[in-house]
Design brief:
The complex is a heterodimer of chains A (114) and B (111).
Chain A (H helix, E strand, L loop, with lengths): L4 E3 L2 E4 L5 E6 L6 E8 L3 E9 L2 E5 L6 E5 L5 E5 L8 E8 L9 E2 L3 E5 L1
Parallel strand pairs in A: 2-11
Antiparallel strand pairs in A: 1-3, 3-8, 4-5, 4-9, 5-6, 7-8, 9-10, 9-11
Chain B lengths: L8 E5 L4 E6 L7 E8 L6 E6 L4 E2 L4 E4 L5 E6 L8 E9 L12 E6 L1
Parallel strand pairs in B: 1-9
Antiparallel strand pairs in B: 2-7, 3-4, 3-8, 5-6, 6-7, 8-9
The chains are: A mainly beta (114), B mainly beta (111).
């Protein structure tokens, strides 16, 4: 079974631009979560989607948004990019949202904001 | 905030067992203990999780104390490829509960 895939793997943008990242979960998984990882803050939760609905949201500004499609694929968008948005963005999928469902992570998208 | 405390770093000789401790003294009865690891700049890899009983899979064993206030991840025969940051996470039972990652333990397996 194929793992979680994320596209693109690397991205360079300039301040003020916007960016859209894509995540395809493991087949059959209906929950997708997004995380941001930076050297200073570590791994931080952004949001979680299940059946096209946002179930949980981390403490990030409204410039960060996401959505999930009927095939469970998910996108996240960051508008008005800032230098501090440079990070590894990770997507994780799981069968469901119950606590006993382990999450499987993708390889991440490394975003650099210049 | 992360509900776990782990050593910042540990060393282990190749071929020996690596025992990674985790304290979760405020854990509730319905919280699961999860372990993930992250090899440099890759996505975290799921290792194992448990609620009350000890668990074993092809990668590792998870030993949870009877009072559930601490646990140990055991890699039985560490290899150089096990060098990574290991995260211990407690996750509240219920829906919509995200994973809260702490700084983890940087394990170095030495030849």
């Amino acid at each position: 079974k194929a793992g979680v895939t994320q596209t693109p793997r690397y991205l360079i943008k300039t301040r003020g631009q916007q960016v859209t990242l894509s995540c395809s979960p493991i087949s059959g998984h209906r929950s997708v979560s997004w995380y941001q990882q930076t050297p200073g803050q570590g791994l931080q939760f952004l949001f979680e989607y299940f059946s096209e609905t946002q179930r949980n949201k981390g403490n990030f500004p409204g410039r960060f948004s996401g959505r999930q499609f009927s095939n469970s694929r998910s996108e996240m968008n960051v508008s008005t990019l800032e230098l501090g948005d440079s990070a590894l963005y990770l997507c994780a999928s799981s069968l469901g949202v119950a606590s006993y469902n382990e999450q499987f992570f993708g390889p991440g998208t490394r975003l650099t904001v210049l | 905030d992360a509900k776990t405390t782990q050593p910042t770093s540990m060393d282990c000789a190749e071929g020996r067992a690596a025992n990674l401790p985790c304290n979760h003294s405020t854990i509730s009865g319905n919280e699961y203990v999860y372990w993930y690891r992250q090899i440099h700049s890759q996505g975290p890899q799921y290792i194992i999780h448990g609620l009350k009983n000890n668990e074993t899979n092809e990668m590792a064993s998870l030993i949870i104390t009877e009072d559930r206030k601490s646990s140990t991840l055991i890699l039985p025969h560490a290899t150089l490829r096990d060098t990574a940051v290991y995260y211990c996470i407690v996750r509240v039972d219920g829906y919509g509960q995200n994973f809260v990652f702490g700084p983890g333990t940087r394990l170095s397996v030495l030849p």
